[in-house]
Q: What sequence folds into this?
């Protein structure tokens, strides 16, 4: 049986936010929403904050992405 590929824990490039992203505002409409989602902007492959309405209105431009690091010791499968 094939072993799963190890997870890269320290790949900081995967967790960078877009330079135009503002943490308390939607990346698209600039709304100061009480609920913002962190998603991947497909064009730049960087993280951004989106309000739920903008996420629904442009599902082809953004990707829900599990960007949390895996729990456990580094290098252990």
A:
């Amino acid at each position: 049986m094939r072993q799963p590929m190890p997870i890269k824990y320290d790949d900081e490039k995967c967790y960078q936010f877009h330079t135009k992203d503002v943490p308390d505002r939607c990346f698209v409409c600039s709304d100061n929403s009480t609920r913002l989602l962190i998603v991947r902007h497909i064009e730049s492959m960087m993280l951004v904050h989106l309000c739920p309405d903008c996420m629904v209105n442009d599902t082809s431009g953004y990707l829900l992405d599990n960007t949390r690091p895996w729990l456990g010791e580094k290098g252990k499968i």
In short: The chain has one helix and three strands. Residues 12-63 form one domain.
